[in-house]
From TrEMBL:
A Pfam family matched in the record: CUB
PANTHER family in alphabetical order: PROTEIN CBG13490 (PTHR22991:SF40)
Official protein name in the record: CUB domain-containing protein
Keywords attached to this entry: Disulfide bond, Signal
Ranges for domain C-type lectin: 179-296
Residues covered by the CUB domain: 287-412
SMART domains the record matches: CLECT, CUB
Region forming the signal peptide: 1-16
PROSITE patterns named in the record: C_TYPE_LECTIN_1 (PS00615), C_TYPE_LECTIN_2 (PS50041), CUB (PS01180)
InterPro entries per record: C-type_lectin-like, C-type_lectin-like/link_sf, C-type_lectin_CS, CTDL_fold, CUB_dom, Snaclec, Sperma_CUB_dom_sf
Length: 412
């Protein structure tokens, strides 16, 4: 039951942060092919900018050697057989007042490709110009005269930032120094506890944990003012080998406010608060109940201390600072019963493919590399060949603007 619960929960959170088909490259930037557009359209660049805007992105913008090389190679990848040179549209737009090109995001052309003598960048531009990057690395701008149309469709590439946390809007805090940096939200009815937790996660939080009566009263009052007058899901659920209740946000179980007789055997594995009475008492309920949710967000970053172990099978292990920062390296040492093998499940990974890696080793020291992983991964499994121990080495090289990883493991 517990495993099922975890699996369900995880499948909800393990969504990619980049649009489908995009690659998470560096500094949390996703790059990829988004659509096909007609370049015959003299407003091609405007259309491109609008299209990329649908995913809060921009057409290709080149500010340095890394951008130039990356996109030149993408153009090369796009080159059909028997065609010498391929072109992809870049986000240069004409500033009509200065008659100079600038980038679609308003930034100036501060980088030029090597050997671009006689480049369009040195000539006056016109509004109907459309610029391409060739697989040979040159920028080429075509400015068809009005009325002249050479229709051909063009793949549109965009860049966008991987999903960052939404601002802490609608956030209510307790006015108390002891609760500094913690805020609460009560949201709509969800289909299940797992759904509720997924929703909180998408907002950069967790289902709420409660550690004293003041927090309890606060959430109860907040719930009632939001119309949740019957009950709300809290972040308590059965966790760990001991089959006891724990908080999904990982905080200590140091307070409870159950009705007497609760938790009641068989009543369910998830916790809800009854908001219909002033005491806001708790009961354990079926996780598939339909209840409004109470989320908690910690605005202060979680600890970014590396804890190498020991870990229990089935526990969820996060890289230090997850999900707010990913810059601290950490090695995790995992063992299972002798005679069994370690099956690691990479529940979630968001790492820059340029720089951040997870290396999975058979055994603790001197073992073979089972896998060396980067980018966006969810629900991937890796198993040792014979050893009952595994080393999982999280080696970010910056870990800029990405969330890091969450893993779990078991003996098989
Ligand atoms: C166009 O260029 C002028 C002069 O360089 C600048 O002041 C202006 O902000 C630019 N216009 C736009 C729309 O970026
Ligand atoms: C993992 O792959 C990256 C990129 O290919 C490489 O730089 C790194 O050294 C690899 N790590 C190990 C331990 O092999």
């Amino acid at each position: 039951m517990r495993r099922l619960l975890l699996a369900l929960w995880i499948s909800q959170i393990a969504q990619c942060s980049c649009p489908p088909g995009f690659e998470l490259v560096r500094d949390g930037e996703c790059r990829g092919k988004y659509a096909s557009i007609e370049e015959a359209n003299k407003d091609a660049i405007k259309v491109a900018t609008e299209k990329c805007g649908e995913i809060k992105g921009q057409p290709i913008i080149i500010h340095n050697e890394e951008h130039q090389t990356y996109w030149m190679n993408r153009a090369l990848d796009e080159r059909p057989p028997n065609i010498a040179t391929a072109f992809i549209m870049i986000g240069l737009v004409c500033n009509i007042s200065s008659k100079r090109y600038e980038w679609a995001d308003g930034s100036s052309v501060d980088y030029r490709p090597p050997s671009d003598e006689g480049s369009a960048m040195d000539r006056d531009c016109e509004p109907r110009c459309v610029c391409d990057l060739s697989s040979k690395g040159l920028w080429d701008c075509g400015c068809s005269p009005p009325g002249v149309v050479t229709p051909h469709s063009h793949d549109l590439f965009c860049t966008t930032q991987s999903n960052q946390f939404p601002p802490l809007s609608d956030c209510e805090s307790i006015n108390d120094e002891s609760s500094d940096g913690v805020c609460y939200q009560v949201g709509a009815i969800s289909d299940s506890w797992q759904d509720a937790q997924a929703t909180c996660q998408q907002r950069g939080g967790n289902l709420a944990s409660i550690h004293n009566m003041q927090e309890n009263s606060f959430i109860r009052r907040l719930a009632v003012t939001q119309g949740a007058v019957n009950g709300v899901f809290l972040g308590g659920t059965i966790t760990g080998e001991a089959n006891e209740f724990g908080w999904i946000d990982g905080t200590t179980w140091d307070f409870d406010n159950f009705y007497s007789g609760f938790p009641m055997r068989g009543a369910g594995d998830c916790i809800a608060m009854d908001t219909s009475t002033t005491n806001g008492q708790w009961m354990n309920v079926d996780c598939s109940s339909k209840l409004p949710i109470a989320c908690i967000q910690t605005t202060t970053a979680p600890s970014s201390t590396c804890i190498t172990g020991p870990y229990d099978e089935g526990s969820i292990i996060s890289s230090p600072g997850f999900p707010f920062s990913a810059s601290t390296p950490c090695d995790f040492f995992l063992t299972v019963e002798e005679g069994k093998k370690v099956e690691l499940e990479m529940l979630f990974l968001e790492a820059n493919t340029c720089c951040d890696y997870v290396t999975i080793y058979d055994g603790f020291l001197g073992g073979n590399i089972i896998a060396n992983v980067t980018g966006e991964v969810s629900n991937a499994k890796y198993t040792t060949t014979s050893s009952n121990s595994m080393r999982v080495s999280w080696q970010p090289n910056g870990g800029v603007n990405v969330k890091g990883m969450q893993i779990t493991f078991r003996g098989v």
